[in-house]
Design brief:
By secondary structure, this protein is α/β, with parallel strands linked by helices. It is built from twelve helices and seven strands. Strands 5-4-3-6-7 form a five-stranded mixed β-sheet, with helices on one face. A two-stranded antiparallel ribbon has the order 1-2. Strand 3 and strand 4 form a beta hairpin. The chain is globular and about 75 Å long. The chain starts with a helix and ends with a strand. One of its GO terms (molecular function) is RNA-DNA hybrid ribonuclease activity. It comes from Morus notabilis. InterPro entries: RNase_H-like_dom_plant, RNase_H-like_EbsB-rel, RNaseH_domain, RNaseH_sf.
């Protein structure tokens, strides 16, 4: 059978697809175990053995993204999308007494930054803190990292890493002996490409003269958001104006994420939160990130997986307003 098709079968077992054949095979061979840790005996059915033999391909792209943090073992489960192999290594043996992602979270559901930096190396701590968490207690989810929307495709199984960013990382290693993280390099290249295609997508042909800013209706608040991205974190900011163009709110914060698209979405989530605390009821949020704004016109499953948790939080926060608009 085609190896790519068998890999798809293996992915469906890992992701616990509701398909009848997956339920039958899982009941007989997995018995509650994780597919990535299961073995196949020579006497087992080919329906089980063949998908098991594709685990090497699946392990290169499968990652368990944190939702509520329960049932994830951060020493064994592949759960950090921005690390090679998606796994972390403890800095010292004492850290092994903690094994669940929930042990790294504060009561608020945010990362316990001090504990994360204590348990992991600098590179791993940055990668862990870059994972955007949802405050809605969503379940953990397996994602397929080679695709934008996290859905497995046969084509993506054999896709090659071919971009200028990857070539640049290769040259940095060869000529400057600088350490490179291929997984992180590919991820950033993918995000940059998506942002590029959004920027040069066909635009509205409406004459520029008719696109001039129009005054807000009384009672409306316009909130402009932006971010400044650093090596290990970002600064996000929001400025709100009323219908008379008076500044009625300014706010800023630091977030542990150096990925531009994620930082832009964090800024939008932050703007929604501070708008709620200021009692605004009708708001329009403006961002210069086309991908961030576009995500609000798509379902959560169709937006990039790296911002999915933030988008779901924003959808929940929107319910606190009478009217919201994104542009």
């Amino acid at each position: 059978m085609n190896r790519a098709f068998l890999t798809k079968c293996g992915w469906e077992m890992l992701a616990q697809s509701p398909s009848l054949w997956v339920k039958v095979v899982a009941e007989k061979y997995l018995r509650g175990r994780n597919f990535l840790g299961a073995e196949a005996k020579p006497s087992d059915s080919s329906f089980w053995k063949n998908p098991v033999h594709t685990r090497d391909l699946i392990e290169k792209g499968a990652c368990k993204v944190t939702g509520n943090g329960r049932s994830i073992n951060f020493w064994k489960d592949p759960r950090v999308p921005f690390l090679n192999g998606f796994k972390t290594v403890p800095k010292y043996e004492k850290a092994l007494i903690y094994y669940g992602v929930s042990d790294l979270l504060l009561h608020s559901g945010a990362w316990n930054e001090n504990r994360v930096r204590d348990f992991f190396s600098v590179e791993e701590a940055v990668a862990v803190l870059s994972i955007s968490l949802s405050r809605q207690g969503l379940p953990n989810q397996w994602i397929w990292t080679p695709t934008k929307n996290s859905e497995f495709t046969v084509k993506s199984t054999y896709s090659r890493l071919s971009s200028m960013a990857i070539w640049k990382a290769r040259n940095a290693k060869v000529f400057q002996d600088l350490e490179a993280n291929p997984q992180k390099t590919f991820f950033h290249a993918e995000m940059q490409y998506q942002e590029y295609t959004q920027t040069f997508a066909p635009r509205d042909s409406t004459p520029e003269a008719s696109k001039r800013w129009n005054a807000l209706l009384p009672g409306w608040i316009k909130v402009n958001v932006d971010c400044s991205v650093g090596q290990q974190d970002s600064v996000i900011a929001a400025v709100a104006r009323d219908s008379s163009d008076n500044i009625v709110m300014t706010a800023s914060a630091r977030v542990n994420n150096p990925i531009p698209l994620v930082a832009e979405m964090e800024a939008i989530r932050f703007a929604l939160k501070v708008s709620i605390s200021n009692g605004f009821t009708a708001i329009t949020i403006e961002s210069d990130s086309a991908m961030a704004i576009t995500s609000f016109s798509a379902s959560a499953t169709n937006c990039p997986w790296v911002i999915r948790n933030i988008k779901l939080d924003c959808d929940f926060l929107k319910q606190s307003f009478e009217i919201t608009d994104f542009s």
